[in-house]
Amino acid sequence: MTKPRTTGLKPWFSLGGIAVFAVLLLAIAPLVLTDHWLNNLGKYCCWAIAAVGIGLAWGRGGMLAMGQGVFFALGAYAMAMHLTLETAGDRVPGFMVLYDPLAPLPVFWEPFRSAGFTLLAIVLLPVVVAGALGYALFKRRVKGAYFAILTQALAVALATLISSTIRETGGDTGLSDFKYFFGFVLNDPANRLMVYLIAAALLIVCLLAVWQLYRSRFGELLVATRDAEERVRFLGYDPANVKLVAFVVSALMASIGGAMFVPIVGIITPAEIGAAASILMIAGVALGGRASLFGPALGAMAVGWGQSSLGSTWPDGWTYLLGLLFVVVILFLPNGLSSLPAKLMRRARRSPAERPAPAIAPAQLEEVRS
Amino acid sequence: MTDALVVTDLHVEFSGFVAVGGVSFDAHPGEVRFLIGPNGAGKTTCIDAITGLTRGTGSARLGDQELLGRPVHKIVRLGVGRTFQTASVFDELTVLQNLDIAAGRHRRSASLLRARRGVGASIEHALAETGLTGELATPAGILSHGQKQWLEIAMLLVQDARVLLLDEPVAGMSQDERTATGELLQRIAAKRIVLVVEHDMDFMRRFATRVTVLHQGQVLSQGTVAEVQADPKVQEVYLGTAGAATTAAMAVVLERED
């Protein structure tokens, strides 16, 4: 056994990066940010958690998951139903009795009274749904644009379903006005800080999880499957299983992001999980760099920040700016903004003097032509 | 000693077109078995059918196991490995990572979650065998064409394939690389079944133990190199109607024999 040269310092360097990120989010941010911006940062963390999962599925696995809103919704609505019931106490939630004062609580709401069931649902629902969906799609070798369109359609379908079932799910108005979070009063600034810290910590945990996945053999196998699925099959693996694992993990992350989104933002509506929201999640990942460790999270946070600062003061301009940024990045930095430092460094190192001379001098070429 | 690969009455049809119509041959460990024939003779289709890439009827048995009808990855797990006409390695991964993935079918799935520590003995052996030891950390995408082909063979070695089906392994190689590849095949064939699909008649002449000539999906001739070349049917096909490139190659070979 000899020491391979490939596993150098890079993974440990990335781990240091996660540590710095953790200190910034968990220690520095609460000290320097106002309550309002800390809450916003918490919201970006939720999108970032979903983005980390998209980076895994799309960046490393090559599955353009355009419907992560579905899994974001599973976590978000599970959490929102629990918080709604917690707020309503023994009574039926207010929006349900709006149309019919005697309306009973729908059967599928009942188990969400239990905190344990809710937490379990946030974890297990996306695993089961993504597992079944992924199994059906990957075993039938659905990939590329077909996979993207199919997942996107599911997000649209789910948003439409929620919109049209106003008595059961709150419809377009969504679920809101939560007063408690597992017994903690949500108005209390100390509790709001706690909720923020949970979201930020979960983001760090997700980053650590993909850090380990990327440096593991599974990470290598996933890249191999992305680049040459057929070849992987001829090495004795079933690529469907490899993709399934990555897709399920990414769905789980989207669900966790959705679940934390609810107590932080205080409302969940179909608009937050539909086609547009799902594409915005993808946009952040693409901008940041889909195959890198930090790119998806930072990209999602940047898009989130742009959304809430520029998006509110200059809504039209923001949409164009985002579109322009998207075009520029795809054209000049196909691997996202996170590939910029390495690119600049390579350019700086290769100063003009060191550049290799062209194999044929231009003058010679002219001679040949004439 | 490994069991033989026995193909009996193999048929492959593509919506009415018979690509392979009743081909039978066998291959044993200890011989470098060649499958030759003009373009469209059905050589690659035979390999595709044996490895489960295309559906074939008839029988292809490895020992007492029937291969036809199983999914690709299950056939691989029975010990059948193959390469492709265009070297297909994972360009973005290093030579070591490529080999490590190939070695993976003997590993438990839980170990996938850990990072690799060190280089396994089978990988070191395959690297030495194929002369790639110095390229351990090189991304496979920047290897030379010949090195990519060798990496593919190395991947089959760490995969511990009992049967190696090689589709034009020396296409695009220099003369020295061809010789090295041929000698490599003779070495590894001692304990494994090696079946080579080739266009290059000179390469075939130098390294084949036994040859099967296919023509329009049928076996035209079978035997040692000398027997096959002496067969008038083979001469007719190669010197008569077949593709220009192979005709020229075969003509050169026949001239030398004369």
TrEMBL record, chain A:
Name of the molecule in the record: Urea ABC transporter permease subunit UrtC
Organism from which the protein derives: Paractinoplanes lichenicola
Membrane topology term: Multi-pass membrane protein
Keywords in alphabetical order: Cell membrane, Membrane, Transmembrane, Transmembrane helix
Lineage: Bacteria, Bacillati, Actinomycetota, Actinomycetes, Micromonosporales
InterPro entries per record: ABC_transp_permease (IPR001851), ABC_transptr_urea_perm_UrtC (IPR017778), LivM-like (IPR043428)
TM segment ranges: 12-34, 41-59, 65-85, 115-138, 145-166, 193-214, 234-254, 260-280, 287-306, 318-340
Domain of life the protein comes from: Bacteria
UniProt-annotated location(s): Cell membrane
Coiled-coil zones: none
Gene: urtC
